[in-house]
Each structure stands twice: as C-alpha cells, then as structure tokens.
C-alpha cells in the first residue's frame, strides 16, 4: 500500500478455474519433499520460504529464485546520503504476520514523525487537518454529516471478520482458493465485495456522494492509483490503511524480506526462471525449472513449486509453462501502472494557494479526481533511518518529497510542483492489480504441487495480504503433500476451533 491519510481520517476510519487435480499422485508414506522452489523474493516469496521451512522442517532444501532485488516491490532509493522508501511504505497495527516477522528478526519500528494532511481539488484545499482532533471531528461532521461514522463502522466490521484468518492459520487450516478463504471469513458477503464497486457499496450504506468524492476517492488515488469503482473489498483494505495506527521498519521494509530468507535458511539464486515443465516418473510428479543466471543456463527438479511473482502479461514474468495438460500460460488481468517520483527540492506552495511557504502547514497533500490534476499525491517523506534528533524539513527548506502519478512527470509539471530541485529519481511500478468490478480471482493451485501466491492481490494488495497468502500456501502445500484433507476448505471453522479448545 502506497500511502496513508494519517490522523486526518483516523476518525473514519467469472472466476479463473484451477487446472488439473489438486490432490495429485500419492507420495511415499511419511517421506517429506526433497526440494521446494519459490519463484520471487518479495514479501510474498520470502514469507512463503519462511513458512515452508516452519512446516516441512530443516531437512527440505528451499531454493528461492529472484531475477531482481530481494524485496521486490519493497524498495528504497538514496537521496543526499539517506535512503527513502520508493515502494510499499506503511504497515497497519493489525497486520499480525508483519508484526511477528519484525519481532522474530529483531528489527525495530521506525520512529513516526508527525505531519498534517490536506485534500486538494486542483483549485483549493477542501479538507485540512488541524492540530486539534475535536476540531477535525467537528469539521468532518459539519461537511459530511454522519457519513464518516457509517464508514468507520463498516471498515471495523470487515476488519474484525478478516482477523479470523489468524486463528484459522494458527490452528493449521488452509484454503485451496482465494474464494474459499474469503468465504470462511465473511461468507458470500466478502466474495460479493470483490465483485461490487466500492462507490455502489458505500452509497447503499448511506455514505454521501460528496464524502465519496472528497474523502474516499483521494484515499483510493494515493493507495491504489485508481478511483472509487474498484471492488468494495479492496476499498475496505485501502481504508483500513487510512488510519493513523501505522508503522514501518527502521532501516527499510525490505529488511523483512532478506531477514525471512535468512532464518528460513533458503538458498537464494539470482536467476530468471524461464520455463516450468511437469516431469512424471511412475507415481512421482516433479517440476523441472529452467533458469538463467549470470554464469549461464541451468535446470533443477523440484517436488513443490510456489510462484510468488505476477503471471499477468502486462508484467511479463518471463516464465513459460511447457508440457501441461490442459495447456496454460499467463493468467488474465493487468497490473496498474503508477509512478513514484522522489524529488529533493523546494515545494512550490503557491501551487496549493500558499504564496508564503512558511505558512504552509501540511506534510501530505492528497487529491480528488480532477482532469486538471496530473498527480495523485505529494508528501514530504522521512528517511528509513530516523535519528533521535531528526525533524521534518519545513516547506521553506529543501526537503525530500514523494509524488505519486499515473504517468512520469515532465519538466513543466515538476516546475509547477517545485520552485527548484536538486535531484529527481523516478521509479515506475506495477505495484497492484488494475481492478475491475467484474473480474474473477485467480487460482491458488495451478497444478498438483504447483501454487500461485499473487492471486490474493486481486482481492486486496498489501504486504499483509501477501503474508496471509504465503502462510496459506505453506499450509496447503503441507496438507496436500501429507493427504490431510480434513485441514483444507473446512466449513464453520469458528465453531470447529472453539470445540477444539
């Protein structure tokens, strides 16, 4: 998730079928897999390696293939001798897997630095955070009535149901599809939320159109770069991240990925996986991975393979599936393009109606949907290492800013936003799915013992969603391998867990 509304909004808070028989051939009784491959070393892949090690034990060889940098969409850039998050930057306090990772790895929470937020419509600030919580609350009520209370109750109800996943996973239960997982948490209501536009759901809830346009839309623009037509479940995930109980990792969120690979004792291979082929020898099914490293090409056989990288054509994973019956290749759908521009310079506060930068009180500017606006947000950002004496730069000083936009900023646009600047670093991401209200959810099981992690992103994209999917796949792979069908896709799990206790 890209950004946060900080304290301003703290008061608010056609499916794709699986291929083949997921059960697969029987294994020698009690024999663990010899080798497992994970393709991708982002948060999903590194968490999968960690959970696979937990469930399969120390003897299994876990190879992790990564063609780029460990961390994937968790990444930093260096500006003026300091590192700044250019990818996923915030984590919610209820993200229990991420919290547990940080604790296990001995990492620290980054010290938060206060800063006020405003919403800009291209002409003026229409919503401004103040230093007084009660005044902010009164302003929201005066402008939007009880819309923000209805929204808060809705998001809290969804989060309460979603939190059930931690109990299910702690008891070892797994799900063979994203639909099964969502159904276990919120029944058909959660699945329907992946198919209905957010705006439609909120209007039905009694949230005003004005509130949707001026508050909800800016959150969607900063977090997913998209509008309020995205599915309601994804919108709820995004709105949960608009609270002020957010955190990040000291030194950079990507440290979680490298740390998980280390404690998993995973074998990291800097390689591009080119092809995956099933190899059937009698009763035994394995997968041959062909790959390219700096030293040349190679291939290895694996008992279990987890793909923790997007397989949509817009991303271009480079992985080909050869020899599968029925044949399949890339999955439908597209990833959304967004641009993160890190600028070291002087913000042009006049653009936002403040000719004197000393009177500009905001650290973050979100935007409404307007044809005149070429950016989604601009925010003063802090380095990933924050010393005890650190203070946020004032607008009249040269600071480091992150601008999210749908397209790279040209020089004239940079000149509009900044009076002058020392450096500009551009990162073009495809960090989340391009959401459509009618699309289905990709399969988790592509073939026996061949799993796809990134399908969870089509229900909601966040570090914790990938971590939940990683734990689910590790459990699912373990139960499938050991034919423990009573631990997969079970109904009425809350009742079952209570009776187990």
Give me a quick take on this structure.
The chain has 501 residues and is an alpha/beta fold.
Could you explain the architecture of this structure?
The protein has helices at 43-56, 96-105, 133-144, 147-162, 164-170, 178-193, 198-205, 209-224, 232-240, 255-263, 411-417, 463-481, 493-500, and strands at residues 35-39, 61-66, 76-79, 82-85, 91-92, 116-120, 125-128, 246-247, 267-270, 272-281, 284-293, 296-302, 304-307, 320-321, 335-347, 362-367, 377-380, 399-405, 418-433, 445-447, 450-452. By secondary structure, it is α/β, with parallel strands linked by helices. Strands 7-6-16-17-18-15-19 form a seven-stranded mixed β-sheet. It has a six-stranded mixed β-sheet with strand order 9-2-1-13-21-20, covered by helices on one side. α1 (43-56) runs parallel beside α12 and α7 (198-205) crosses α9 (232-240).
End-to-end Cα distance, whole Å, is 36 Å
| Average of the residue pLDDT scores | 89
Highest CATH level, the class: Alpha Beta
Radius of gyration from CA coordinates:
23 Å
Percent strand: 15-25%
> What is the number of strand segments?
21
Question: What is the second-level CATH architecture?
Answer: 3-Layer(bba) Sandwich
CATH fold type: FAD/NAD(P)-binding domain
- Helix/strand structural class: alpha/beta
Which superfamily, in CATH terms, is the homologous superfamily?
A: FAD/NAD(P)-binding domain
- Would you identify the regions where 5 or more consecutive residues have pLDDT less than 50? 1-21
Number of structurally distinct domains: 1
Net shape:
globular
Q: Describe the sheet with the most strands.
A: 7 strands, mixed
* Helix content estimate: 25-40%
Question: What count of helical segments does DSSP give?
Answer: 13
